[in-house]
Amino acid sequence: MSVPIALFITGAVVALAIVCGFVIRAQDGRRRSGGHLRVRAEDLAGRPLASAATLVQFSTELCARCPQVRRLLGQIADEHADVAHMEIDLTNRNDLATRYHVLQTPTTFLVDGSGAVLSRWGGVPNRTAIDQALSSALILNLQEQK
Fold this sequence. Notes:
Elements: H1 3-27, E1 31-33, E2 53-59, H2 66-78, E3 83-89, H3 94-99, E4 107-112, E5 117-122, H4 127-145
């Protein structure tokens, strides 16, 4: 193979890797639908869900970004009366990663009082996206109480 062809192929591979990196980075922290997932009470180690909404964070011992998300979610939960934050360590609970389709840590679920997953974020979530999803969940909770 000639040197110009080898350089062209190398450049194409590098360009493809850069484009793939940008696509993956753009997906990180984006809000997605919860689908038909429902958090089970037995998976929460006896901790009850909050009546309005719970921010459930899936993390691992070696997760570098999990402490940042823990602080963010704790702060958001402290700002709302009927919202809780709970963290589930997947290090020794691989079965939960499979059950809830968690492919990266941190992953955050917004769960209503019945355990239905309303929204989910993979990676570090955007504060604005969490606030918007939480506002919608709190409004739905108020409507159901009436």
